[in-house]
Amino acid sequence: MAVTAAPRPHPLAPLSPAEHIKARDAVAKLHGASESIFFRAIHVQEPKKAELQPFLEAEHTGNLTDDTKRPDRVAIVEHDVIRADRSEYINAFVNLDTGEVATVSAPVPHQPYVTPGEFDLFNDACINSDLFKEAMSEFVLPEGFEICIDPWPYGPPNADEKDIPRYMQGLVYAKDTRNKNDDSNHYGYPIPIVPVMDWHTKKLIRVERIATGGIDDELEAKVRSEEPVKLFENHKGCEYVPELLDVPLRTDLKPINIIQPEGASFTIQEDGLIEWQKWRFRLGFTPREGAVLHDVHYDNRSVMYRVSFSEMTVPYADPRPPFHRKQAFDFGDGGMGRAANNLELGCDCLGAIHYVDALTTEPDGAPSTAKAVVCLHEQDNGILWKHTNFRTNRAVVTRNREFVVQFIATLANYEYVLAYKLDLAGSITLETRATGIVSVTSIDEGKVSAYGNVMTPGVLAQNHQHVFAVRIDPAIDSYNDADSQVVIEESHGQKIDPRTNPYGNFYKVQREKVEKATWIDAEPRLNRLLKLENANKKNPISGKNLAYKLVAPVTQMLLADPEGLAAQRAQFAQHNAWVTGYRDGELWAAGEFTNQSTREVGGVADMVKRGDWFTDRETDGANGDAEGRGKRSSPVVWSVFGLTHNPRIEDWPVMPVEIFQIHIRPTDFFNANPAIDVPSTRNDASVLLGGSCCTASGDKNASAVQQHPVTHLQGSAPSIDPKAVGANVDEKLSKRLSKTFNGLFGAKKEVK
Amino acid sequence: MAVTAAPRPHPLAPLSPAEHIKARDAVAKLHGASESIFFRAIHVQEPKKAELQPFLEAEHTGNLTDDTKRPDRVAIVEHDVIRADRSEYINAFVNLDTGEVATVSAPVPHQPYVTPGEFDLFNDACINSDLFKEAMSEFVLPEGFEICIDPWPYGPPNADEKDIPRYMQGLVYAKDTRNKNDDSNHYGYPIPIVPVMDWHTKKLIRVERIATGGIDDELEAKVRSEEPVKLFENHKGCEYVPELLDVPLRTDLKPINIIQPEGASFTIQEDGLIEWQKWRFRLGFTPREGAVLHDVHYDNRSVMYRVSFSEMTVPYADPRPPFHRKQAFDFGDGGMGRAANNLELGCDCLGAIHYVDALTTEPDGAPSTAKAVVCLHEQDNGILWKHTNFRTNRAVVTRNREFVVQFIATLANYEYVLAYKLDLAGSITLETRATGIVSVTSIDEGKVSAYGNVMTPGVLAQNHQHVFAVRIDPAIDSYNDADSQVVIEESHGQKIDPRTNPYGNFYKVQREKVEKATWIDAEPRLNRLLKLENANKKNPISGKNLAYKLVAPVTQMLLADPEGLAAQRAQFAQHNAWVTGYRDGELWAAGEFTNQSTREVGGVADMVKRGDWFTDRETDGANGDAEGRGKRSSPVVWSVFGLTHNPRIEDWPVMPVEIFQIHIRPTDFFNANPAIDVPSTRNDASVLLGGSCCTASGDKNASAVQQHPVTHLQGSAPSIDPKAVGANVDEKLSKRLSKTFNGLFGAKKEVK
Predict the structure, then answer these.
(1) What is the pTM of this model?
(2) B113 catalytic, yes or no?
């Protein structure tokens, strides 16, 4: 295929291969032949909002011409400059029109994040290190086991570490190779040591020993024994690949096929523009976030400028060092896009599926194709709306069709299934499913722990939390920043008052505009919710501001002591929502650099601290104070929710999904139910189940049942013999009631 | 079909038609020819738990013989004895073995609940009443409109009413008949009067006038105008049936068909025994609750004795009398079973569906068949568990198959879609979907209100709450009452402590046994949850008690002033959970009689007050105090959750579903993920979408896209020209990284 980019790519379109190479070459040229470069990621730099908005408005109104002013097309090139004793991480911004590096970020000495390619090197560096061999000499593995190391981001430093260079740590396991199956699960065989590598020198600097005790045991590892310790003598396997299971697979789960005989109802353009029903948006895909929705419209009205999953932190609650360093930021430390699974038809989604590839970056800067990292499809989600007229018994019922944008990331042992769902009633749902293998460590057999749960003898799954942050940049029927406001709505019970509330049933719906960047905690006792509103446009019927409301699950926030490292690094995870002032490029709830951080820098807490506000003020400083802090801005909403995961045995060896959803629902944005025009068409492919479903072994009535596919609990109603009735019924009532028995409650009765 | 009941019905089986008639006849005989009877409901009386348990244990262990002692087979006959001046409501209990009435409840003078059959009578009594005609003479309806009255339970009395007899009230609307469509929606035309009927005399006793003002207007209705008031002059229609819509139906929603080519994976017996995968349970259906699950087992181990939706209250927050009486208890006042829709194939569920009929009762006591009131089917719910081995890129992924027991009730304007879902991982989910038409009243055109939202000019949808109660009677691997305990589990953050928590990342999981009947409020800050445990059986691996945990949404409780009628009648709705001591027949969160109640009698609050306890005690009184209050019992758990519904315009004219789910999940009940044996079979019916999905009109690359059904955002990656590279890359690293690029994050990269 010839490398010809579209002459004028959409400003939000991902880089073309030609652009990708152009950006790479500009950076290579910048550094010249004297420096070695490790390319981490090359991707489009989103335009400044102020520059993009006029373009989008022209596009939406059909006024886009060749003369429409376009934002500069810029690529961001994330790369390391590698020197003999150290590496520096730099972001270069390449103007793709000129082919020149426009700006370069300040160099960062520590490990910015870890890439897949770095892991294998780490594994080998450990295995070949004398330090590691020496540490392993404490243990004897069973015959046929080999070492298998999961690299982990280093997390926060130890108390005695200052200004550390690039570190990486590993969790060490053994793998049973006797079954000659590469997918044998090593997570059932943890080895209680943690190697730490200096990534600059690619040498191990130490191997930490881990405590393996139970309740009442010390936090410190046991004194090294003189005798070699035999590991895993009584361990059970923990296989999950079907051919290694020690239980038979179920054979009685008959297929469910989801068929779209006329095809799907959506279209996607090569540059990511997706249209489905009245929705229209652009799909982005970034190394850090995975799939992102841009420029989301419903029925030609803007709803969202950008929606994304922004960050997640997973601190483990085992107080024994070095487990304080077991705190992943799965976006900042690794990246959901980099970690995205190549999805497979008939596995990750059912039905008629469209897959989207993305470009990623090779270490030499070449673009490569990550296949099928996002899947798009429609699905049925039960009833959308229904009403039965009890007088006629006529029901009108529509189905809840959803359009799903799904991607899945594997972070070593663990998986996240993330999805955006748009529905026919104008709502957006963001869903997280947590699955995969819980992270474990060694525990002396027979002991139990206050820090987790024993999954199988010798294996402790540590208590931990997953705290997610979603970033919502609203555009409620307008792309004008000044139109955007956030309101806190609460419902308050009221005391009896003879004048205003004589019976006490009244409750008051209170509104409070968010005037200034802040955090907001959930308060379900007040039904506290956030409304993303247009400050200037009112609903013509209700007179209320056009709005979308955010309905998020009320979950526990970060439990770590606010004074400790885990909390200092994850300020975002301490409140259920944040409202911050928009600034270009501020996409990260926990800040740009999370790995090796000791506190959250440039995250939502810092954004709040600078004091942006959202409404007009009489005072000066509309453009911020002398230091540029605090200015009139448009609000960005961050929704934080999560799972306190105290593992249960049922999570082993691979856990069933734990699901969370947040909903963004129109609230006086439309003039009626936007799904009232959904046809209540009967699905003709549905079938009545008869014989095979109803026939249980030993059911003597099988043949009768086959003729009556509907089960009558205890048979059909016979007619009653009036002569058997010993008492009069109220005849007038009875007659009237029989006549009117297709009654209020809708069930059409049929007297046989 | 001959009327021959199975000789020995299962004790939990619904009544056979023959049993139904036998019970009816016994009651008719009891009253003799001198009394008129109105039969409300005839259904099976569930056996006493102490008598049923030995039977079930014999059944489960395969030891059931003809000699196994069976509980008495008893029918409950709910009926009115109608006299000239009043009616009395009585429950008669008929022993079906003897055919005799065993016991009779004390007569109840007030309206126990309303039945469908009573509604039409009410409508006619209003229309024909002079009082009503006189009230209506205040108003002039447009040509072609006729009156249409929705009967409502009377709710709590006015302040000046004591010892009222059987009352019913109505909400009055007008219906546009000009379109000659019986399903024209009258809810868009409310008339501000409320007729009240005395059901004993079947006469209207008064017609109340309703305030129609807005903010700052009085609570009282306006003084009656001298001039007739013309109604609905500027009203817009609010139709929802497709042929009356003023917008065209969507035509671009292509069908989704759900096909089970090999049939379904479940069986159902005529007596309600259902088996699906490793689940086994009995389906019941009662007039008040609708579908109920009994004797729920997984893999031959008991999980639940009984699970049911128990009650719901819907208080409206409009303080203007008589709206304090607008508080429905949809189970107690009406009954979800009585209100159950006749479900239709291809509408209420998709796929391969099995429907279940139920027997209901005619006013003369005859059984009649309510067709298709419950649907049973399997559905796919996305990914159940997945893990990708980053070293080999092999993914194992299973689908989340659910078995769904669904029923839908219509309560006048409103619909509830209720479902039990069992899954492959041993979890039970209870789901509520609220839909239908929001309840409205009149508002002067152009005004807005603090009590609700204007849906269309002149129509106010009042703020209200829906508070649901689910009843859970656990049987965690045992039917022995003494094995059952409930534990509150919380996760508590801990301060830094050099000895126990040096970095502050530790949190403590605390357990507290519920010793005594009590209520429990949600506390998401502590991740408070209830565990239903076996007190005496421990998991062999973790050492923890076998358990299921209850994961319920944290929602706002009842807002009404606790001193007022709405709250007094719905104590249950004021706390997120209740744990009460088991007593036979105590199934109702708000007590048996809710209609016309002034306080909750015999509901969860009273159950708590009597002081049952759940653990062995040294003290006396194991069988209660002198009054029989307080005894050693087994815990029953009630989960309360709900929706504060401040209507949005999008809820009009029929609202999109608002969904809540509570989950009951195994927690150290099994020895591993019970779904590890689910095959990760690829679904061969899924298809890759190409041309039709990707081809948008105007897409010049349509043909190219058709050849490449996967969208490459900006095309595929070309190879890079090494000569174009101006700087060296770190060759060793680059080589290693390329080799190992099937890296930690699972995405198999493909360099073209």
Answers:
(1) 0.93
(2) no
